[in-house]
């Protein structure tokens, strides 16, 4: 299996698929020109509806992350890695701002970040 989906998350499954594919690209596990699994294959692996994966792929194509090769499938296009990193940082900033508004102390946020980076989670 390529990655897992959190079915209990409030984030829509298609969004999770998009995020995971972007992270695979950022980590270097997926490179420009490499094929991603077919819609049917990924849907079966993840146990989700075909339309969910199709929507994720369609949006990744619109964002320029994937491109369609007729008769062959979806491949990773030349991706602006810095743009994806900037998007992730923006999301992180929003979450940290939410934590601050919720009264979560900075020390707790830093501890969580350290745990994640060390893999202590």
From TrEMBL:
SMART domains: HTH_GNTR (SM00345)
Top-level taxonomic group: Bacteria
Gene3D superfamilies in the cross-refs: Winged helix-like DNA-binding domain superfamily/Winged helix DNA-binding domain (1.10.10.10)
Signal peptide: none
GO biological process, one term: regulation of DNA-templated transcription
Keywords: DNA-binding, Transcription, Transcription regulation
Protein name per the record: Transcriptional regulator, GntR family
Organism: Thermotoga maritima (strain ATCC 43589 / DSM 3109 / JCM 10099 / NBRC 100826 / MSB8)
């Amino acid at each position: 299996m390529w990655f897992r989906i959190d079915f209990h998350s409030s984030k829509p499954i298609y969004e999770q698929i998009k995020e995971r594919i972007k992270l695979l690209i950022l980590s270097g596990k997926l490179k420009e020109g490499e094929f991603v699994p077919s819609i049917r294959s990924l849907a079966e692996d993840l146990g989700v509806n075909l339309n969910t994966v199709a929507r994720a792929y369609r949006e990744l194509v619109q964002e320029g992350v994937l491109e369609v090769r007729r008769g062959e499938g979806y491949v990773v296009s030349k991706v602006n890695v810095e743009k994806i990193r900037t998007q992730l940082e923006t999301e992180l900033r929003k979450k940290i701002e939410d934590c601050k508004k919720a009264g979560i102390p900075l020390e707790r946020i830093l501890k969580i970040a350290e745990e994640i980076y060390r893999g202590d989670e």
